[in-house]
Design a protein that fits this description.
The complex is a heterodimer of chains A (about 250) and B (about 280). With about 250 residues, chain A is α/β, with parallel strands linked by helices. In chain A, about 30% of the residues lie in helices and about 25% in strands. In chain A, a hairpin with a 3-residue loop joins strand 1 and strand 2. In chain A, helix 3 runs parallel beside helix 5. The termini of chain A are far apart. Chain B starts with a helix and ends with a helix. Chain B is built from 9 helices and 4 strands; from the N terminus they run H-H-E-H-E-H-E-H-E-H-H-H-H. Chain B has a 4-stranded antiparallel beta sheet with strand order 2-3-1-4. Chain B has about 280 residues and is of the alpha+beta class. Classes of the chains: A alpha/beta (about 250), B alpha+beta (about 280). The interface between A and B is medium-sized, with 22 and 15 residues.
């Protein structure tokens, strides 16, 4: 369903972002992408929803190849992919319901089908009573749920989530993560980039760990004991000079 | 239909920016329209002066009236010529007396010769054409002299050329300024909706779907801006007419062209701005 073959990505100014990336994701699988900041998690996700194309290698997703996908093919592919970000990316000037409906409208869905679908998805994410609230009236966790509802509205085969809990407190993190598990349980594959090692440890999902743009660990291929990094990744980003953080 | 609704909704969401966009388009077209008004009036003034370009062939006293009539028929068939008139000695005297006013008595009957007066068609009044017609008229034996104000025709022609070149250059410059301002305005409107556009792309909207509301918006703003500009030019024209000099306004075709031009600028401006934006995301 999703296959990356010897993918490399190089940016003209910042240099190599990814190299020798190869992995596959099966239908209905849940995959964590972990690693320190700058290790290439977001770049991989961008390649998956074809916001960017690899410098070398090939990304193959649902029959569309990064080598020859047209802009129109990419648009159609994205209707089958749900995408969620750390910063929610909701439109502030419209309600939760309108934000979700928007994703359906732009695909030219028949008008009659829109309302029941939006209600169903908002119920699914537990926001049926907040349909008319605006993003600024909602908590971070609720906003992320709206974003997830928007990602689910087109019945995607995969949900791509880039640090979806990065801006949330622990409670909201747990509930959003549970929601993603539920989504996965209903058959949608989930690929989630995260810093949160606790979240990774607490579940038994496949984990692909990146460092400096390379895969350093893939639990589908190696036993968990072979994992190189046992400490939270965040430590790697912490400046050694404490005064710099003040 | 959906795109038209989307365009209207977008304008409602940001009414100030939307109004500002339209007014900017209107004012840049207003500047262009004012220039157009000046150009149209200068052109008309030149046309009026040019209408007075005429060639006079003075006839010898011995000219045979039948030969003259045949020559007039010939001359009337020249492709450049619009009208040929015969002015008899008596008519010439009457006219001269009228023109001279109090000095009318100076002329005595028989002093002035009879003549043939030739007027040329519009577009056939350049010095070369005038000279060529005059030369042909000189070939008739009974023609004593041909006059057409050689120097005056040359000066007029030069003036017309200068006006045309200046008009074209200024027109292109004004149009370019209008296009740049309108482009920047539409770009501002596109940037104001950059987040919305990026989310549209993420959830799988096609480029056409994203573009269409902007095109419709550009079209509406272009037409409304064009109409507003036209109204402003018309008001200015009225004020000039009332307090300064008599001027003419654009004719129907030019008004139509102006509005179509505004609409085109709106549409092209939108196409370019959204296209550039989409290529980046």
């Amino acid at each position: 369903m999703i296959r990356l073959t010897e993918v490399a990505k190089e940016y003209p100014r910042s240099g190599v972002a990814l190299s020798h990336i190869s992995f596959q994701v099966k239908k209905g699988e849940f995959v964590f992408l972990t690693g320190p900041s700058g290790s290439g998690k977001t770049t991989i996700l961008k390649l998956l929803y074809m916001d960017d194309r690899p410098t070398q290698g090939e990304v193959w997703i649902n029959g569309v190849s990064s080598r020859n996908a047209s802009r129109r093919e990419i648009s159609l592919l994205r209707r089958r992919i749900g995408i969620v970000f750390q910063d929610f990316r909701l439109l502030e000037d419209r309600s939760a319901e309108a934000n979700v409906r928007f994703a359906l409208e732009v695909t030219g869905a028949p008008k009659a089908s829109i309302h029941p679908k939006v209600s169903r998805v908002l119920t699914q994410v537990g926001l049926a009573t907040k349909a008319l609230s605006f993003p600024r009236e909602m908590s971070g966790g609720e906003q992320q749920r709206v974003a997830i509802a928007r990602a689910l509205i087109n019945d995607p085969f995969v949900l791509i989530a880039d640090e979806p809990t990065g801006n949330l407190d622990e409670r909201a993190t747990r509930s959003v993560f549970q929601l993603l598990r539920d989504v996965n349980a209903s058959g949608t594959a989930v690929i989630m980039a995260t810093h949160d090692l606790d979240l990774v440890r607490r579940s038994n999902y496949r984990t692909i760990e990146l460092n400096h743009g390379r895969i350093v660990f893939d639990s589908a291929e190696s036993p968990a004991s072979a994992r190189p990094l046992q400490e939270p990744f965040d430590l790697l980003d912490t400046p050694t000079d404490a005064s710099e953080t003040i | 239909m959906q795109s038209a609704r989307e365009a209207l909704t977008a304008s409602r969401r940001a009414p100030l920016l939307s109004a500002l966009g339209m007014v900017t388009i209107a004012f840049s077209l207003f500047a262009f329209g004012l220039f157009g008004l000046v150009a149209v009036n200068i052109r008309r003034a030149l046309d009026q002066v040019e209408e007075r370009v005429e060639i006079r062939a003075f006839l010898s006293d011995s000219a045979d009236i039948e030969q003259v009539a045949a020559a007039m028929k010939d001359i009337g068939e020249f492709p450049e010529v619009s009208r040929v008139d015969y002015v008899s000695r008596e008519q010439a005297l009457v006219r001269a007396r009228k023109e001279m006013g109090e000095f009318a008595d100076v002329f005595e009957a028989g002093v002035l010769p009879a003549s043939i007066e030739v007027q040329l068609r519009p577009g056939q009044r350049s010095p070369t054409v005038v000279k060529s017609v005059a030369d042909r008229m000189k070939t008739y034996a009974f023609v004593d002299d041909v006059r057409y104000g050689e120097e005056w025709v040359a000066k007029l022609y030069k003036l017309r050329n200068i006006a045309t070149v200046a008009g074209l250059t200024l027109g292109v410059a004004f149009a370019a300024v209008a296009v740049i301002i309108i482009g920047a305005t539409i770009r501002m409107m596109v940037l104001a909706r950059a987040k919305e556009i990026s989310i549209m792309r993420l959830v799988g909207a096609t480029d056409m779907y994203i573009r269409l509301p902007f095109l419709i918006d550009g079209l509406i703003k272009g037409v409304l801006g064009g109409l507003l500009a036209l109204l402003l030019v018309w008001l200015t024209n009225r004020v000039i007419n009332q307090y300064f000099i008599e001027t003419i306004f654009f004719d129907r075709e030019m008004i139509f062209l102006g509005i179509v031009g505004g609409a085109l600028m709106g549409v092209i401006g939108s196409l370019v701005s959204v296209g550039r934006h989409l290529r980046r995301i």
